[in-house]
Amino acid sequence: MDPNLLYWKSQGQSLFSRLQIWVNLLDPTHLLSSDAEIQEAHSLLGDGENLNIKDGQAMTLSLSSVHADSGAVLPLVFRPAAFLPISAPVVVASFLPHSSVKPALFWQFLLQSYTAGFNYANRNSSSEKSKTTSLKQLLLIAGAVSYATCAGALPQIVINRLGVRSTPIQTFFRSIFPIPLSAALAVFNVLIVRSEEAETGIQVFDSNGNPVGFSKAAGEKAVRETALSRAALFGTTAAVPSLLVQLLKRTRLFQKNSLLAAPLRHISVAFVLGLMIPVSFSLFPPLGTIKKENVEEQLQAAADGRQLYYHRGL
Fold it and tell me: 126 falls in which pLDDT band (50, 70, 90)?
C-alpha cells in the first residue's frame, strides 16, 4: 500500500481530522515545488510497509502532489491545491446572468472540461486497464463534457429562446434552477469520467495493507462517494449565494443600491466555493472501507477481517 494511503488510514478516519489535513494540503504554495522535490519527499516516507510521518513537510508535499496508486506526480493544474485558484473564476463566470447563449456555453465548457480533467487525473488507477487512456474512455469524457456544457447553459438557452421577460421566471432560471442542475451535472461528470472503475474493479487491501484483488463493488462505491462529494460542493456553491442575494435584496440598503447585488453574488460564490472544497474533499475518507460480505465471493475468502480497504480517489 502506498505511503499516502497508509497515512490516511492512520490519521484521516474522522471527518474533523480529514478536514484539518485538507485545509493544509490545499495551500497553493505547494504548487511551487518541483517534480524532483515532490518525488524526493515521497521517497522519504518509506516503502509502503513502514511509514515515516516524522517529516511533516515531506508528508504534506506527497499527499498534495503524488497519485496514491501510480506514485507519479500529478499534473500541476490537476493537483488539489490548484483546484480553487483555477476553478473559482470559471465557476463565478458560469453563474453570471449572461446576455446571450454563447458566453454561457463558453464558461460551461471551461468548467466541465476542467472538472472532467481533475476527476480523471485523481481517479483510482490501480487496474491495468485504467493505467492507460483507451479510445472508449476518451470518447466518454468528450461526450460527458459536451452534454454537460449544453445542459449547464440550459437556463440561459430557455431565457433567450423563449424570450422570457417575466422577472419571477427569470429569477427561477437564474437563481433556483441552477442549484439542482449544478449538483446533478457534478454527479454526472464523475459517474461518466470514472465509469471504468466500476466496470473493471479497483484494488482492495486487507487490514495489513496487502493487496487482495480487484473489486467492482468497491469501484462502484468509490465513484458513488466521490460523485456525492462533488454534488455537495457545486450544489452548495450554487445555493448559498443565490439565497443570500435574494434575502439581502429585501433590505433597505440593497433596495436603494441595486448594483450591490452583482458584486456580492460574485464574491459569495468564490467564498463559498473556497469553504466547500476542503469540506467536500473530507466528506468521505480517501482510504475507504467496504464490508467483506459486500465484495465478490472470491475476495471474501482472501480477506482476513470484516472489511477491506480501497483508494477512493478524489
Answer: confident
